[in-house]
Write a structure and sequence with these properties.
The chain has 333 residues and is of the alpha/beta class. It is built from 12 helices and 12 strands. α1 crosses α2 and α6 packs parallel to α7.
Length: 333
């Protein structure tokens, strides 16, 4: 049977109000009384009923984080940034994985909103469906979305067009003439990042008068094996790029380089490689990966800061924070 606040009060010989004041660190309680109450709490292994408290206060002291998956290096660094900021507050974090299923996404959103499981939601690398956006609006729930810009929602992102332009420009200035691109899928509802990076790459090629051979392009996912497959398929169909921009990210670049080595293709001698994100592994492999850095941990910190300021009514209207990308030159290009 669960120990109640009243049980602690009886054990300590005080009122239940006094126990509550001790739990809230109220300075009006004397040192001796505080010690007696804390001793009773420890002896009885009492844990406050936060669900009941949240109903009473109208808040849960919890922030929900929603993503397709949390296993990528990018997602893990975002979470680190969020946690770095959350540890300074009273807020806990709950993660919700949609597993790429739009129906599951909407069910989870409704569960969070109407089950009052969180005071705000951070959405990572998802483009919510119109129906989901309506649920947010109707429930008046603070939302911050990372890696997207959506009217009516606060967001944290990096300038993808500029970052991709910088990647292509670096390869062009290095003397590469037959430059390929491995991008995320461009034909889906939530492919905004892939489209922006593809646009930035194409703009740089056009500005410098470099013809892009579509045979050197590959649309893919964002995992290591996707890079392996993209490299294999590109060379099997006769493509011979002297450089490739892995706009789908450094994890894909790692897979591409592994398969290139298996095929006897030297990086950067035969083909230069530029990635995107600057995950930790990019600097640890050989050759180390030239990449476009997103300040991923800072993006996580900023997302939580915005959501908390919105909850506290310090932010009245949606805001967007856009970080500048940075070219990090290493061995692969």
């Amino acid at each position: 049977m669960a120990v109640t606040l009243e049980d602690v009060a009886l054990q300590a010989g005080v009122s239940h109000t006094t126990v509550s004041l001790v739990l809230h660190n109220d300075k009006k309680i004397s040192g001796k009384t505080r010690e007696r109450v804390l001793a009773a709490i420890e002896q009885m292994n009492y844990h406050p009923n936060y669900n009941a408290r949240s109903l009473a206060k109208g808040k849960t002291s919890t922030i929900a984080i929603m993503a397709s998956f949390f296993s990528s290096f990018f997602a893990m660094d975002i979470i680190k940034g969020i946690e770095d900021e959350a540890v300074k507050t009273e807020y806990d974090l709950n993660q919700y994985s949609t597993r790429g299923d739009k129906e599951r996404e909407l069910k989870q959103v409704k569960s969070i909103l109407y089950g009052r499981r969180a005071d705000g939601i951070i959405i990572l690398s998802l483009q919510p469906e119109p129906e989901t956006l309506k649920e947010f609006k109707d429930a008046d729930m603070p939302v911050v979305i990372i890696e997207r810009s959506i009217d009516g929602l606060s967001s944290v992102r990096t300038d993808n067009v500029k970052g991709a332009y910088m990647a292509a420009e670096h390869l062009i200035k290095a003397g590469r003439k037959n430059i390929g691109i491995i991008h995320g899928h461009l034909d889906c509802y939530d492919c905004i990042n892939a489209k922006e990076r593809h646009f930035g790459f194409a703009k740089a090629m056009n500005d410098y008068g470099i013809r892009h051979d579509e045979n050197n392009s590959a649309g893919t996912g964002y995992e290591f094996d996707d890079g392996v497959i993209a490299c294999r398929e590109m060379f099997e169909r006769g493509a011979r790029p002297d450089a490739v921009f892995c706009a789908a990210g450094d994890t894909v670049a790692l897979g591409f380089m592994k398969e290139a080595r298996h095929l006897g293709i030297k990086v950067p001698g035969d083909i230069a490689v530029v990635g995107y994100d600057d995950i930790l592994a990019s600097s640890m492999v050989s050759p180390s990966i030239t990449t476009i850095r997103q300040p991923i941990i800072k993006m996580g910190r900023e997302a939580l800061s915005i959501i908390l300021r919105t909850i506290n009514n310090e932010i009245k209207e949606p805001i967007t924070t856009t970080f500048e990308p940075e070219l990090i030159v290493r061995e692969s290009a």
